[in-house]
Every structure is written in C-alpha cells, then in structure tokens.
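TL;DR need structure tokens for one chain.
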Amino acid sequence: MVNNIVAKAIPIGCNNMLLIKNWLKVTESLILFLSISGDKFQVPWEEDSKNQCKYYMKMIADKEEAVSHQGIIEDVSDKSRKH
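>> reply
TL;DR here they are.
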C-alpha cells in the first residue's frame, strides 16, 4: 500500500497521472495500481501547476472531440475535477 509519506515524496501532476492511468489500462495493470492506493501520488487539482492543469484539460478536450467524432457521447468534463 502507498502511504502518505511515500505519496508526498513522489508527487504526480494531474496530466502525468492521466498518462500513467492510460498506459496502465493498456498494460492491464490499472486495477493493481488502484488497489495499492496509487491515486495518492496525484497532486490535488488546486495545488497542481498551471501547466499540468492546462495540459490535462487539453487532453480531456482532445478525448471529447475524438469521442464525439465516433458518435459516442461521454461526459468527461465532470472527470476533470476528479483526476
């Protein structure tokens, strides 16, 4: 399990966490990462850098656009505050 001391020693911004989670989905390791409290590494949105937040929102916008082109409606705007 990831404890708070370790999590604070290795802070991961929101954009980088999204990249990590996306990669872990591909490698089928996301469930393991979440089961050991891997989310604790993520810097809270309010404390994250402006660049991390900007890149994260761009990635979400790109994903929304790609999904809308496929004719699938997915609300990812609510997720932007959770990640």
